[in-house]
Design goal:
Number of helices: 17
Strand content: 5-15%
Radius of gyration: 21 Å
Strand order of the largest sheet: 8-7-6-9-10-11
Order of helices and strands: EHEHHHHEHHEHEHEHEEHEHEHHEHHH
Length: 347
Amino acid sequence: MFGLGGPRMEAEGVELLARFEDLAVMGFVEVASRLPYFLRLLRDVRREMTARGADLVIPIDYPGFNLRLSRAARDARVPVLYYIAPQVWAWHRSRMKELARVTDRIATILPFEDELLRDAGANARFVGHPLLDLEEATPSREAFARAAGVDPSRPILALFPGSREQELARHLAVFVEAAERVRSAIPSVQPIIARSENLPEDAYADARFPRIGDSRGLLRHATAAIVKSGTTTLEAAIAQVPFVVAYRTHPLTFWLAERLVEVEHVALANLVAGRRVVPELLQKEATAEALADAVAPLLDESSAERTRMVQGLARVREGLESAGSREGGTADRVATLAAGLMEGERP
């Protein structure tokens, strides 16, 4: 196995041609500034794919790079299993047909993606969401509080500013200020920052609250959360933690996104639910004051806002679990698809 990824892939025996930290760029403007690097990397990966006689290519999200790689694989008659499917249905629906042309199979993780991609001609299958495969074992509240240096008897406000350096730069300060406002109004609240293993500790040097790398434990014991838009919104929904979504990006990237995005919601949890279950505060709306005002009622166990959101999050989880009647988990189902393609099976 060889490809692009991080330490977990490397630990499983994948020879890395490039590492996660070199690839963690989001946004039109941000990607454009590193275009020469990505073009060189694409050339290198295509060369290695041919030289090593690859038997299967598994692209993971990242459509700008991986659609080109998939096209090269198809030209070389190497089967392609796309997992996780890129969200082209959100901002560039015409690319769904291209995705269908350059793949043999697509394993989808969101229940509504299946039909959209099949309508575009893809051989798509909903395999369930990998977050549901994770083991439930998390530290007790007392053990978690001890590790985080907080009081287990008091409410916890979780802050998830992002796992990429550019996300941290745009979200951390405003999340911290929002938490300070909440703590001024509700002194018993204890903010804790989720620290990404992909970023150095000194990236959080200006944060004034405890930081912890155990994001699952943090969600397990949080009373409410402020979350950067992304996969963590689904993690929070699965954990049934009420939360507020925020996202900030480069002004030009946001301007372009407003004109290209074709969905009503940004948060994955809202997309799965098909309605606005959790508040979304984007760009200039994502102020410390607005975040604090939105999350404060969610810290009150008896508030109507919290009750409504918990009910909505339960429906999100039910939607993600709709593949649960099949045997095995998401990883098993994807592995079966991969093995079939490597053994010569065709759609």
